[in-house]
């Protein structure tokens, strides 16, 4: 379905009229612009969903969220359908449940081994199969696609693809990178990069939004890390630039194993390649983690220092000592040459607040407007 | 048999030489926007520009432009596809997914061989299969034609009354034999012969376009004409049977600009009535279309014609031009669009997607196309034959049409009859006629040596009924209680030489090939049904469970109706599966 994309947020509450309808025998009120599924969520009624992802344009293709609407010939996808006044909807009756289970079983049938995803722990398909009590797949399996491990950061295993199109929406509508397509047709319809190229040589910019969108792990961070259960999850902000994208670090044995975008005002759960995949520096033994001061008598040079041999030129210091030293020197320059002797050049990695503090320091402390980043 | 080499035909273009996918090096230098991954080949770009000329690069023309490349090079190389993406300012992935969706585009990836210059398509639809298509196919495949010819199968090409049919490039061969194919290859008869038909002058000489002129001149009001259509009770002849007059009223009440889309995709196996009328009296349809456009207040008209109908395309192209050159009244713009081999594009919303230059994936309803159709505008969507009857109904009056009919039903139906009868073809008969009456009175009875065994009352989707149920009036609504429907009135007659079981398998294979692949019940369901049915020993529990989810949860009519053939086997031909 290719109607103009619309963002459906479940949280919207405004003065417009609510829609009263009946869900599983209970009267409920939907906000204007809310789908049956979103209204059900707010009322604590769980309807299965796979191709639906909160915040994305609902596409209505997987058909696991089907509900029965009184007076309609066929079932309706609750992720796309708006309730209307007086509508009588049933999401747990025999007819709706039958289709929900059958869709789940058909998708499970075509998973590798006809069972839980081998690429992602607690995949969304596995979770819903569990909740719906779909265990055995009784149908013959499709022919499978070969894996594509050409990308250093992501693995593509379409044998676990349920053709939900979330990755296409992620790439095309969320990130507007337009790399992923859904090519061919029918049973042979396939997720492709550009012209069905290996992901690693395609025009992919490695934002990883598709990986985050994929409900089964068909697209997953490389090396099977999505299978590992993290010891803890640490909510943080991306350290790379000033935009302030929120993210969550998944940590196992005190190591970051993978990163997920977290819903924040700047990023709506999206990330770029650096935030999502560029975290190896954190565990790099050569990373500077403490203040250091140049040793007495070691001359400054423009030559690059050997990171393994830092201590011939530097010694460890406390923050107090380092700050005193730097502050003292800046003050000395200002006293010697006046404010024109100083300028500030901040880091693009600083947050907005840090940038504010920095210019404050330069303007009031140094006394100059020569500040940039 | 001699080996015939036809590779000399058209060169695949210089640009088809292997284009490496950009490696790491290429990616460093990528441009923003189009073609980031692979560089655009300058030769291919020039070739594509030359083909497109000064035609607009609008997105909705993507399929038209793909046809230009396919026609010229008999394939679409990755280099050309990439150049087209660049030229149209589209992402390569989007162009690729559209091109690969349609069966008539041969997308050739880097390093792959181009297909041969000549393609022989053997129809393996049910009527052709009953007339020996598999045999013909096997003989042609062993025909030793060499590198220059490939032999493949095709779904129903809309000539079931002359089964079996083979199509050599664009040249359909009726009652095809190996000798016919040889002759066509030898004489390079690769295009469709255009049959004799009533052209513009002859149509006007016979009183044509007088009604349209009268309407536009104000001698009739739109309300009157719509009332006539309603009273006549003409229902949509594309399959769904929605009352035509009511549809006009609904669309007319929507906000302007309103558009119109005419459906000549005619892909339902067994159906060939639209082609029949187009190849005889195209202006009768065009006049009906323009009267509808006038009554509803239509700003622009899109006519979507299936690619298989090459002769009809030549006719329509010429006759629309003639009409525009001698416009009897001020005409709205008329755009003729060419399908590319996809049954699903007959489904109205899939057709609209295709008109917009996209994959033919049906849209979810609501909103209905009457409200949100082509380019998001309210759209009057009609089967070609529905419009074909407008002139006669308005001229002769609602009474005339409504007084036709039999067994309590009203109106006329154009039955496409094929299978084991003496006189297959389009038979215009009273609505409500029974299969027995239709075979005896119109189709010349059963073929010698064949005993009536069963019939498809409505193409692939409408189910199968046994000979014992030969007294049901054939019309909209009358078949519903048997789990069947008349659809496009495509009647396929089976005899004691056939089994319902293998006929059902043929149809399920068709649905499997033609599913758009969008929704799980149909994409996976048709595949599993074929796999189960091919086992010979049908698993009733699995097939029944499958039918439930397909009928209840598929997005469109294809998936919803796909289980009908096998459900009817269980219901009406239980001896075949016990
Ligand atoms: C899978 C599928 C295929 C269809 N194919 C055609 C077709 O080839 N031609 C057609 O006119 N209608 C076809 N239809 C019906 C159209 O969706 C639509 O109902 C019809 O064109 C409306 O026009 P009418 O009211 O004049 O019949 C098809 C429907 C489905 C579900
Ligand atoms: S790769 Fe994942 S997100 Fe993309 S269609 Fe397949 S299952 Fe859905
Ligand atoms: S029912 Fe079949 S053809 Fe229709 S939308 Fe679903 S997959 Fe496509
Ligand atoms: S979640 Fe509604 S159709 Fe997939
Ligand atoms: S033309 Fe072959 S089945 Fe219709």
Defining traits:
heterodimer, A: 373 residues, alpha+beta, 3-stranded antiparallel β-sheet, B: 578 residues, 5-stranded mixed β-sheet, 25 helices, 15 strands, globular, disordered N terminus, binds flavin mononucleotide, binds iron/sulfur cluster, binds FE2/S2 (inorganic) cluster
Word description of this protein:
The complex is a heterodimer of chains A (373) and B (578). Chain A has helices at residues 36-42, 94-109, 124-132, 166-174, 209-213, 273-277, 319-337, 352-366; strands at 19-23, 26-30, 66-69, 76-77, 88-90, 154-156, 180-183, 190-193, 219-221, 232-237, 246-252, 255-261, 292-294, 314-316, 344-345, 371-372. Chain A has 373 residues and is α+β, with helices and mostly antiparallel strands. Chain A has a five-stranded mixed beta sheet with strand order 2-1-5-3-4, sandwiched between helices. In chain A, strands 10-11-12 form a three-stranded antiparallel beta sheet. In chain A, a hairpin with an 8-residue loop joins strand 10 and strand 11 (246-252). Chain A starts with 18 loop residues before the first strand and ends with a strand. The model of chain A is unreliable at 1-13 (pLDDT under 50). In chain B, strand 13 (452-456) and strand 14 form a beta hairpin. The interface between A and B is large, with 53 and 64 residues. Residues 161-167, 191, 213-216, 218-219 of chain A line the site of one iron/sulfur cluster.
């Amino acid at each position: 379905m290719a109607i103009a994309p619309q963002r459906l947020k479940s949280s919207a509450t405004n003065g417009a009229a609510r829609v009263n309808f009946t869900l599983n025998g209970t009267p409920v009120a939907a906000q204007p612009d809310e789908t049956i599924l979103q209204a059900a969520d707010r009322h604590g009624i769980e309807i299965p969903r796979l191709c639906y992802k909160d915040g994305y344009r609902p596409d209505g293709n997987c058909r696991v969220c089907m509900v029965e609407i009184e007076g309609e010939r066929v079932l309706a996808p609750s992720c796309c359908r708006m309730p209307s006044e007086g509508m009588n909807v049933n999401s747990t009756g025999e007819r709706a449940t039958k289709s929900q289970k059958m869709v789940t079983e058909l998708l499970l049938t075509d998973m590798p081994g006809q069972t839980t995803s081998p690429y992602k722990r607690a995949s969304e398909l596995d979770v819903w199969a569990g909740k719906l009590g779909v265990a055995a797949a009784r149908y013959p399996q499709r022919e499978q696609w070969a894996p594509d491990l050409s990308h250093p950061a992501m693995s593509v295993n379409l044998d676990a693809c349920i053709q939900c199109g979330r990755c296409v929406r992620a790439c095309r509508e969320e990130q507007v990178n337009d790399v992923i397509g859904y090519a061919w047709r029918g049973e042979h319809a396939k997720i492709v990069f550009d012209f069905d190229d290996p992901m690693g040589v395609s025009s992919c910019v490695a934002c990883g939004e598709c990986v985050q969108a994929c409900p089964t792990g068909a697209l997953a961070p490389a090396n099977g890390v999505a299978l590992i259960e993290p010891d803890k999850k640490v909510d943080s902000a991306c350290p790379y630039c000033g935009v302030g994208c929120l993210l969550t670090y998944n940590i196992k044995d005190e190591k970051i194993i993978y990163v997920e975008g977290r819903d924040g005002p700047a990023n709506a759960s999206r990330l770029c390649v650096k935030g999502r995949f560029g975290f190896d520096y954190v565990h790099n033994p050569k990373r500077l983690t403490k203040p250091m001061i140049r040793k007495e008598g070691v001359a400054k040079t423009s030559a690059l220092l050997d990171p393994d041999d830092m201590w011939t030129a530097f010694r460890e210091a406390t923050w107090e000592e380092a700050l005193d030293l730097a502050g003292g020197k800046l003050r000395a320059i200002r006293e010697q040459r006046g404010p024109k002797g100083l300028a500030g050049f901040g880091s693009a990695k600083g947050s907005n607040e840090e940038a504010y503090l920095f210019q404050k320091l330069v303007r009031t402390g140094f006394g100059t407007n020569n500040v940039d980043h | 048999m001699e080996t015939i080499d036809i590779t000399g035909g058209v060169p695949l273009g210089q640009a088809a030489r292997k284009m490496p996918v950009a490696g790491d090096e290429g990616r460093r230098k990528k441009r923003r926007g189009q073609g980031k991954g692979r560089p655009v080949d300058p030769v291919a770009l020039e070739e594509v520009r030359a083909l497109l000329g000064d035609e607009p690069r609008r997105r909705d023309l993507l399929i038209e432009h793909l046809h230009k490349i396919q026609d010229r090079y008999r394939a679409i190389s990755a280099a050309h596809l990439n150049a087209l993406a660049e030229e149209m300012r589209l992402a390569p992935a989007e162009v690729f997914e559209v091109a690969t969706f349609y069966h008539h585009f041969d997308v050739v990836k880097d390093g792959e061989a181009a297909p041969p210059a000549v393609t022989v398509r053997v129809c393996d639809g049910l009527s052709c299969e009953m007339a020996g298509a598999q045999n013909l196919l096997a003989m042609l495949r062993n025909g030793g034609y060499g590198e220059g010819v490939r032999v493949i199968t095709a779904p129903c090409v809309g000539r079931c009354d002359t089964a079996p049919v083979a199509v050599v490039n664009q040249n359909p061969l009726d009652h095809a034999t190996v000798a016919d194919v040889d002759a066509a290859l030898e004489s390079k008869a690769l295009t469709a012969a255009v049959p004799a038909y009533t052209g513009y002058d002859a149509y006007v000489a016979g009183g044509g376009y007088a009604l349209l002129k009268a309407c536009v001149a104000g001698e009739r009001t739109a309300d009157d004409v719509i009332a006539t259509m309603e009273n006549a009770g003409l229902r949509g002849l594309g399959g769904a049977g929605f009352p035509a007059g009511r549809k006009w009223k609904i669309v007319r009440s929507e906000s302007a600009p309103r558009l119109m889309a005419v459906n000549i995709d005619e892909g339902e196996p067994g159906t060939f009535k639209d082609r029949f009328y187009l190849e005889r009296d195209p202006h009768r349809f065009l006049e009906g279309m323009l009267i509808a456009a006038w009554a509803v207040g239509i700003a622009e008209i899109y006519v979507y014609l299936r690619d298989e109908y090459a002769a009809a395309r030549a006719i329509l192209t010429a006759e629309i031009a003639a009409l525009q050159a001698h416009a009897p009244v001020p005409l709205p713009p008329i755009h003729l669009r060419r399908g590319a081999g996809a049954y699903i594009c007959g489904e109205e919303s899939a057709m609209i997607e295709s008109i917009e230059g996209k994959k033919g994936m049906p849209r979810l309803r609501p909103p209905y196309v009457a409200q949100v159709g082509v380019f998001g505008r309210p759209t009057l969507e009609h089967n070609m034959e529905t419009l074909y009857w407008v002139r006669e109904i308005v001229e002769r009056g609602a009474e005339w049409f409504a007084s036709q009919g039999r067994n309590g039903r009203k109106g006329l139906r154009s039955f496409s009859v094929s299978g084991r009868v003496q006189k297959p073809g389009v038979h215009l008969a009273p609505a409500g006629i029974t299969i027995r009456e239709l075979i005896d009175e119109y189709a010349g009875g059963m073929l010698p040596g064949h005993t009536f065994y069963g019939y498809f009352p409505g193409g692939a989707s409408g189910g199968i009924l046994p000979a014992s149920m030969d007294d049901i009036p054939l019309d909209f609504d009358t078949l519903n209680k048997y789990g069947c429907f008349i659809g496009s009135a495509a009647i396929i007659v089976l005899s004691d030489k056939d089994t319902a079981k293998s006929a059902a398998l043929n149809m399920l294979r068709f649905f499997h090939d033609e599913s758009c692949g969008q929704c799980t019940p149909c994409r996976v369901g048709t595949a599993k049904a074929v796999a189960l049915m091919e086992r010979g020993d049908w698993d009733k529990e699995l097939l029944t469970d499958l039918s439930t989810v397909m009928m209840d949860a598929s997005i469109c009519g294809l998936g919803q109706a796909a289980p009908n053939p096998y459900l009817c086997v269980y219901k009406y031909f239980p001896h075949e599966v016990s």
